[in-house]
Amino acid sequence: MNKEKIAVLVDTCCDVPQTFVEQYHMYVIPLKVVYKDAEYLDGVDITPEQVYQGLEREVPKTSLPSGERITEIFDQIRADGFQKVIAITLSSGLSGTNNMIHLIADQLEDMESIGGGFHAIQAARYIEDGLSFDEIKAKLMRGIDQCKVFFVVKTLEYLQKGGRIGLVASLFGNALNLKP
Question: How far apart are CA 109 and CA 114, in angstroms?
């Protein structure tokens, strides 16, 4: 364990490879994958491959983890001897997970936490290098400000089915072969 007893907590949207999760002893909060007739925990009850294979039948929605689940993980972190947490989650603009983690962490008197972006592996390396909690927090916040993520979707179909864009935008975008 590192000298300041800092744990790294990520959600499954960070998609940290299992080898890094194990190498750096990260804690992982699974988001929910919700279908009309079933609900699964991402990476626990259902794999990304299974979700992709089922996209033709149904596009699932996602949901943030329950407060109970987050509290259980914080309890485990504390039981494992950690006193500080660097929480790295999906953007707060896309999910309520980050906010939920902060709300629960703020209620824990003997824990400190920060939220960030997709910097879990770097945070673990900073811990391994012996940086202090404040140094890690400052470096991650600077990194977040400098980080930009870009992606292109092949089709707008799943954005429309998932409720991210409307039917008309999807139809026009696909007709014009737009790749936002």
Answer: 14
115 band by pLDDT with thresholds 50, 70 and 90: very low
- Count of CB atoms within 10 A of residue 127's CB? 24
pTM over 0.90: no
Is the distance from CB of 87 to CB of 9 less than 8 angstroms? yes
d(CA 159, CA 162): 5
Cβ neighbors of 131 (< 8 A, separation 6 or more) are: 139
The DSSP code sequence of 119-174 is -HHHHHHHHHTT--HHHHHHHHHHHHHH-------S-SHHHHHTTSS-HHHHHHHH
Phi, psi torsion values for 39, nearest 5 degrees = -135, 135
User: Does pLDDT of 137 surpass 50?
Assistant: yes
